[in-house]
Amino acid sequence: MVKQRKQSVEYRNVRLxxxxxxxxxxxxxxxxxxxxxRHISLDEAIKSLIxxxxxxxxxxxxxxxxx
Length: 67
Description:
The protein is mostly helical and 67 residues long.
């Protein structure tokens, strides 16, 4: 049975393996260098990865629209 979740929660904890965390941290450093902003959070890095994934899948489908 799935636990019911409140809709008004602003943050949720996510559990990552250490290997995944290290990869995410490496990506975060690359993103900081690319954007020149030292105040990028892990949340922003994950959003960037999700956006890139969506854009890539849209290009593969022949639909290069922004969401």
